[in-house]
């Protein structure tokens, strides 16, 4: 996830921005406000899932709960954006001096400070709270189950801890499984972009997209745990590969751009039917075998088509993603992602949860709708404080690790 600065002037995003040849400037240097809106949609999907806390009893409640099972795919949308943005940054700077130093330093300044504060809080402060407030220990115990596994969290390997134990491990740090995938991707993909030609990068990305659904289906058929398939990096590269492929295409003077331009719209339409039909029918389960096998490929293709359309067209989709409130959520999405689970737990367990929903009305749905608003409003101030007091001071240091502009596409050998 890559929150960017908010409120800059939009750069026109027509085909002129990817004009082949020496006139094309570094695309990754341009601020594209609609990307913040896409990021906002991604965090909304994640929160929709995690903040659906009712225990369904009626058919309507069950349907709302089933819809919320699509929410985890907000992570797949984050993956598509990561692949697009990171691949673009790497391609635009790989002929610049200090390529690896600049890239890893900038990623460190963006990702590490807030993450390691959360890790320190989880491994140092929470255990102390358990000792000091034993009467609340039963409520805090679920946050203290990984004390012997701290090196994995410290080294961004929490997805492998979850897979090894075949279970979620920590009420706060569980969300770091997706951050671990992205961090592992940064390490490997930067090396690949630096040493491999664009044609080979294209082949790798396309090969991943073709192979992954069959790999997941084969693993599930062999009895591999759905949760393991869900969290391991090798089985979750669809979205990242789609994003990387689009970044390669908009910088391509050969076959890839016209090829994607022809196929991505029909692929997105087919994917939309494959995803939305079971979702509307209340049959989607993000941990279901059909969804894990081939459904995740459809989700990634749908989000890739959405990114492609918003990038190239000034239609209703772009206008939606440029709405200020959606961009606002996108800018603060990283801290929202890290903080929303514990804040949700506090609101649910101490203020307003399923028992109160049913005391409010015969249906739990009105209470659940109020909970969405209350829990979201509770996390926003924390995210604002995090952004202004912690994240921005580190982000200002990124200017010390800025690559020199690459003015010509031909500066990078294909």
> Quick one: overall form?
globular
Give the number of domains.
1
Order of helices and strands: HHHHHHHHHHHHHHHHHH
Low-confidence stretches: 1-25, 405-414
Distance between the termini: 28 Å
Polypeptide structure, described:
By secondary structure, the chain is mainly alpha-helical. It has one domain. It is built from 18 helices and no strands. The protein has helices at 33-50, 59-68, 74-93, 99-132, 137-140, 150-154, 158-165, 176-195, 198-221, 226-231, 238-249, 256-280, 289-312, 316-321, 324-331, 333-351, 354-360, 365-395. Helix 4 (99-132) runs antiparallel to helix 8, helix 9 (198-221) packs antiparallel against helix 13 and helix 12 (256-280) crosses helix 13 (289-312). The radius of gyration is 22 Å and the shape is globular. The two termini are 28 Å apart. Mean pLDDT is 87; it is low at 1-25 and 405-414.
Summarize this, please?
The protein has helices at residues 33-50, 59-68, 74-93, 99-132, 137-140, 150-154, 158-165, 176-195, 198-221, 226-231, 238-249, 256-280, 289-312, 316-321, 324-331, 333-351, 354-360, 365-395. It contains 18 helices and no strands. 41% of the residues are buried.
Question: What labels describe this entry?
Answer:
disordered C terminus, disordered N terminus, single chain, 414 residues, 18 helices, globular, mainly alpha
Secondary-structure blueprint of this entry?
Blueprint: H1 33-50, H2 59-68, H3 74-93, H4 99-132, H5 137-140, H6 150-154, H7 158-165, H8 176-195, H9 198-221, H10 226-231, H11 238-249, H12 256-280, H13 289-312, H14 316-321, H15 324-331, H16 333-351, H17 354-360, H18 365-395
């Amino acid at each position: 996830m890559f929150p960017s600065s908010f409120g800059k002037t939009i750069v026109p995003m027509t085909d002129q921005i990817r004009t082949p040849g020496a006139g094309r400037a570094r695309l990754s240097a341009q601020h594209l406000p609609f990307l913040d809106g896409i990021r906002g949609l991604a965090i909304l999907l994640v929160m929709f899932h995690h903040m659906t806390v009712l225990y369904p009893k009626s058919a309507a409640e069950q349907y709302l709960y089933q819809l919320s099972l699509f929410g985890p795919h907000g992570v797949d949308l984050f993956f598509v954006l990561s692949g697009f943005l990171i691949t673009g940054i790497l391609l635009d700077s790989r002929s610049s001096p200090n390529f690896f130093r600049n890239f890893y330093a900038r990623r460190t300044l963006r990702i590490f400070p807030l993450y390691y504060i959360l890790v320190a809080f989880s491994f140092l402060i929470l255990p102390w709270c358990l000792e000091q407030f034993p009467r609340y220990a039963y409520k805090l115990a679920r946050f203290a189950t990984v004390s012997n596994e701290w090196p994995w969290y410290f080294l961004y390997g929490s997805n492998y801890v979850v897979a090894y134990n075949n279970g979620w491990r920590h009420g706060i740090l569980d969300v770091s499984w997706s951050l671990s995938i992205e961090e592992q991707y940064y390490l490997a993909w930067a090396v690949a972009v630096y040493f491999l030609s664009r044609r080979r990068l294209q082949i790798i990305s396309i090969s991943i997209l073709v192979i992954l659904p069959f790999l997941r289906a084969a693993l599930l058929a062999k009895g591999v745990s759905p949760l393991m398939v869900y969290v391991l990096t090798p089985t979750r590269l669809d979205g990242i590969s789609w994003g990387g492929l689009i970044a390669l295409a908009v910088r391509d003077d050969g076959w890839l751009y016209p090829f994607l331009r022809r196929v991505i719209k029909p692929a997105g339409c087919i994917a939309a039917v494959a995803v939305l039909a079971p979702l509307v029918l209340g049959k989607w389960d993000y941990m279901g075998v059909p969804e894990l096998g081939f459904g995740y490929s459809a989700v990634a293709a749908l989000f890739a088509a959405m990114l492609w359309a918003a990038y190239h067209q000034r239609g209703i989709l772009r206008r939606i993603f440029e709405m200020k409130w959606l961009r606002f959520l996108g800018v603060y999405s990283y801290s929202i992602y890290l903080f929303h689970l514990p804040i949700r737990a506090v609101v649910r367990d101490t203020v307003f949860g399923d028992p109160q929903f049913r005391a409010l009305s015969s249906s739990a749905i009105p209470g659940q709708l109020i909970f969405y608003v209350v829990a979201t409003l509770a996390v926003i101030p924390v995210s604002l404080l995090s952004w202004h007091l912690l994240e921005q001071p580190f982000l200002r240091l990124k200017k010390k690790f800025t690559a020199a502009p690459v003015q010509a596409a031909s500066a990078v050998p294909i």
